[in-house]
Amino acid sequence: MSANGSLHTLTAHEAGDLLARREVSSRELTQALLDRIRAVDGRVNAYLTVTEDLALQQADEADACIARGEGGPLTGVPVAIKDNMCTRGVRTTCGSRMLESFVPPYDAHVIERLREAGAVLAGKTNMDEFAMGSSVEHSAFFPTHNPWALDCVPGGSSGGSAAAVAADEAFAALGSDTGGSIRQPASLCGVVGLKPTYGRVSRYGLVAFGSSLDQIGPLTKDVRDAALMMNVIAGHDARDSTSAPIDPPDFTDALTGDIKGLRIGVVNEYAPDDLAPEMRGVLDAAVARLEALGASVEWGVSLPSTPYALACYYIIAPSEASANLARYDGVKYGYSYQDGEGMWDNMERTRQHGFGDEVKRRIMVGTYALSSGYYDAYYLKALKVRTLIRREFEAAFERYDVLLGLVAPTPAFKLGEKTDDPMQMYLSDVFTLPINIAGIPAISVPAGFVQGLPVGIQLMARPFDEPSLLRAAHAYEQATDWHTQRPEV
Amino acid sequence: MSLTREEVLHIAHLARIALSEDDVAKFQEQLSGILDHFEALKQLDTEGVPPTSHPLALESVMRADEVRPSLSVEEVLANAPLVEDGAFRVRAVLE
Predict the structure, then answer these.
(1) Does the annotation count A322 as an active-site position?
(2) Mean pLDDT of chain A, nearest integer
(3) What are phi and psi of A235, to 5 degrees?
(4) CB proximity B73 to A under 8 Å
(5) Rounded CA separation A156/A165 (Å)
(6) Torsional sign, CA A242, A244, A250, A255
(7) What average pLDDT does range A143-152 have in this prediction?
(8) Residue B87: which residues within 8 A CB-CB, separation 6 or more?
């Protein structure tokens, strides 16, 4: 790559290779990315904060590191971070008025790891408030636009990160996924999105939403970049008591290109009868491609509790959210209403004005599900259904290495199309929620276009078997060219 | 499943969220609609099924009780709306 004018189109691993060979400096690379952000983000609105000065400073540090012959694959590569991960000294809003001017005094675990790896922070990306949403329309600040069609949503809640990667405004990004918030925007924006196994990546410093569901993961231009990001962020951290004490492998070892004999099962419920024919066509073509690569693909795997996952999730996640978001009281940090009649009045008005409607809805649903007299009928019942869903996955993984389905029932929908009907919005996550309920890993990989908009397929694997996911996704990706297609923004 | 206006106000009180009159009507309708979808779970037989509160089978994660570095008082209070003598200041709880 000679001209700086197209540096922003590189993948993270291509950028890292150029840096390691000293064919480009991190300062040049970072400046090229900042120029790209300045040129297109007025239309996309992927970023809430662009950390230009910090990025250039980190780029110079990375260049010094590379000059000493040190550094790793991501040293000097600018990445974008969803704005629900704490960045020391950099505003972290969580897409909410409540945290509009909150400046964290510490870094999230994943930020520490990225800093140690020498990655450059390009900025913080837009999201649905407190990660509650599927379109970024619940951001308290502004919506993000899908780079493939600016009148469409990018998906959510990590839609800012997905749009930034798709529009070449970041070489790679981090998102978080509580019910599909990495995979669904990855599908809608035509990028790779990996939700790791629950416990694989520490959530220390991630603003908590649904603590038995939340997981951090990468959004990237290709599967190799996802593996490289996982190599940086995965692993045990004592500060997150749900962090698994399991040493992660080198995830790039899985990128062999060989999936001969891999047993793949296609899940009936993630390709229902009422699916649009074009969406089914994407899945059919992906199956044919995987078979041609030597995988053993079987149709007809049934996870019969899937239709109950939506209700199960929308009891569990809001219940946990109602407890987690109790901390926003206007006393310790964040927005604070001061003109009330007393402490309680101030607190209630802080939460009235600081939270948006979707957050209030979920807090209230969760409060109701946990309240005296309803706990057994709602919350406890949902936890039992959770066991049924988990067991069905366990049974399926006795026969298959990887399960396959679509990520979302449709491509990107129009801005404003679903904002008046919360249930319609929730239904866009119907294929992704069960994965969080079961705690297993899953990846979204670009697999075609419907009505000119990108669509992903979803691969799922056993707990801590991200290598099988990455192996299958990488082999598929290398045999197709969907991931190389970019929108004109 | 239809929530009454009083139930919405009760939930909002438990959640410490003040609601305008418009909000009460709006949430009464929307929350009732969401709760309707939860009724589907009653069709599933979960007799004898243990609850899963956590997908990972980690239990009683303990660590040694050792003094470790933490944030300074200044850092902890840096984002606070009201501070007095190194502490968070609130209005009187009992007035």
Answers:
(1) no
(2) 96
(3) 125, 160
(4) no
(5) 14
(6) negative
(7) 98
(8) B77
Nearest residue to A102 (alpha-carbon basis) of A182, A211, A207, A217: A207
Distances (CA, A) of A414 to A135, A152, A406, A419, B85: 10, 4, 20, 10, 52
Nearest to A472 by CA among A226, A158, A217: A226
Residues 6+ apart with CB under 8 A from A403: A264, A265, A266, A267, A301, A393, A396, A397, A459, A460, A461
The CA R_g of chain B, rounded to the nearest whole Å, is 22
Which residue matches tokens 């490289």?
Answer: A228
Confirm if A439 and A390 have CB atoms less than 8 A apart: yes
Q: What is the DSSP string of A421-444?
A: -HHHHHGGGTTTHHHHHHT--EEE
Q: Angle A52-67/A12-20 helices, nearest 10 degrees?
A: 50
First to last CA, chain B: 39
Give pLDDT tens digits for A422-464. Answer: 888 888 899 999 999 999 999 999 999 999 999 999 999 999 9
Q: Is A418 one of the catalytic residues?
A: no
Write down the pLDDT at residue A131.
98
As a whole number of angstroms, the distance between CA A45 and CA A267 comes to: 35
Catalytic choice (A158, A181, A202, A243): A181
Q: Are A471 and A422 in contact (CB under 8 A)?
A: no
A299, A290 in Cβ contact below 8 A?
A: no
Q: Is A468 in the active site?
A: no
Q: Does B45 touch chain A (CB under 8 A)?
A: no
ipTM, interface predicted TM-score of the complex: 0.95
Cis peptide, bond prior to residue A187, ω within 30 of zero: no
- Whether this model's pTM surpasses 0.90: yes
Catalytic member of A26, A82, A322, A468: A82
* Phi, psi angles (nearest 5°) of residue A263: -90, 115
